[in-house]
Design goal:
Layout: H1 2-13, E1 17-24, H2 31-51, E2 67-74, H3 85-93, E3 102-103, H4 109-114, E4 118-123, E5 139-144, E6 160-163, H5 169-183, H6 189-193, H7 195-208, H8 221-234, H9 239-255, H10 262-268, E7 270-273, E8 276-281, H11 285-288, H12 294-304, E9 309-317, E10 321-328, H13 333-345, E11 353-355, E12 363-366, H14 373-387
Length: 388
């Protein structure tokens, strides 16, 4: 794996390649997004080198020969990578450090695709952020675990897509790697060649499903099947003990945000839908609001990103799981109230929001504990359509 990072990055920097495939994760750059992007890029590199033609001239076999390269791009600025505490922790645990990675501000993707040698693979999302809408014609594959949103599907008809609602996108990546490897009669070779990738996929599925928690209720049969497959490859004997240890370590890393300011927490896991800023916190929103200058930081984030509203989503998993939410606007109070009421009435699925105005005028305890940001997206899209 170390050889993959060093040679690929050198070829990218020196423009010494024939074709480039960028595997792009989503803008929140959470652990699922980061790991699916990194592991799938490494797999595509591995696959390419297994099936490419070996019959070539001596000159073309030289190290200077241009070749196809496959890179992961994490959709976060390099300076903000440290905010992704669980991502940094998990990658470092498996030998991947910041110097091995490519971040969105490291390259000019618009220039790269304009040169005609670049393809895009989307993982852990299938709706392009507004800043990336120009990438649509260059997307050749999509792997995502969100419900399909055809309203913003602008890709070519021959774009290959794997879209299935499962607990973790890592489940779909693991399955895709398994299927493609089987086509060349090497079903498990990638996993044995790259044990760190196997470990990463395994850990993230466990985290995303919170170790198949019935309370969280995110895991599917497909997640369970892939975890069993990976445990077999990793030769894990005490499965239940190992699962709990991994999830506990990653939850602790994700929740270790005491050193982050309110402004940094807003950038830690952020998505934008239209004019609505939607950060997700590994702490409860009511605790975020107690941080110094928290409301001022929200106003500044809205202003700097040209948004009218913020929907803050919080989660705490200690003794039991708790979720909460707040709608905030620095200038559009009526619009904020409209969104708050709309979310309370939403029924697909019901978010079960209970108003607690003592914390904030539009603050809610969320009683549907299985509803994460993904379950808010259809409601937000519908609200934005109504507001047009």
């Amino acid at each position: 794996m170390e050889e993959y990072f060093s040679t690929t990055l050198n070829k990218l920097k020196s423009n010494n390649y024939s074709n480039l495939t960028i595997v792009l994760g989503n803008e929140s750059c959470d652990l699922d997004s980061a790991v699916t992007s990194i592991v799938y890029a490494i797999f595509l590199h591995w696959q390419h080198n297994r099936i490419k033609c070996k019959v070539c001239t001596a000159s073309k076999r030289s190290e200077e020969c241009s070749d196809d390269i496959f890179i992961s791009v994490l959709d976060v600025n390099r300076e903000d990578f440290g905010l992704k505490t669980e991502v940094v922790f998990c990658l470092q645990e498996h030998g991947i450090t910041e110097k091995d990675l490519v971040f969105s501000d490291d390259i000019n993707m618009e220039k790269l695709v304009a040169e005609g040698k670049t393809k895009i693979v989307l993982v852990d999302h299938h709706v392009l952020a507004k800043k990336y809408e120009y990438l649509a014609p260059y997307v050749t594959e999509i792997i995502d675990h969100r419900p399909l949103d055809r309203s913003q599907w602008t890709y070519s008809e021959d774009t290959r897509s794997t879209i299935e609602v499962v607990g973790s996108c890592c489940t779909l990546i693991a399955q895709r790697i398994r299927d493609l490897s089987a086509l060349i009669a090497k079903e498990v070779d990638f996993y044995t060649d790259h044990p760190a990738c196997t470990q990463l996929l395994y850990s993230v599925i466990l985290l995303d499903t919170v170790n198949f928690s019935k309370e969280v209720n995110k895991a599917t049969k497909h997640d369970e099947e892939i975890v069993a497959f990976l445990e077999h490859l990793l030769k894990i004997d005490q499965c239940e003990t190992e699962r709990k240890l991994r999830v506990d370590r990653l939850l602790a890393a994700r929740s270790d945000v005491s050193s982050l300011s309110a402004a940094q927490l807003l950038r830690k896991d952020l998505k934008i839908f239209g004019h609505i800023l939607v950060p997700s916190f590994p702490i409860l929103v009511k605790d975020f609001l107690q941080k110094p200058n928290a409301v001022e930081a929200v106003s500044e984030a809205l202003s700097s990103r040209g948004c009218a509203l913020a929907l803050l989503l919080g989660m705490e998993l200690k003794v039991t799981l708790q979720r909460d939410a707040t709608v905030i606007s620095s200038v559009e109070q009526e619009l904020a109230e409209d969104l708050a009421k709309f979310l309370q009435k939403w029924s697909s699925p019901s978010l079960q929001l209970i108003s607690v105005p003592e914390v904030h005028c539009f603050y809610f305890k969320q009683m549907n504990l299985s509803a994460s940001r993904k379950q808010y997206v259809p409601a937000l899209n519908e609200f934005l359509n109504i507001c047009k």
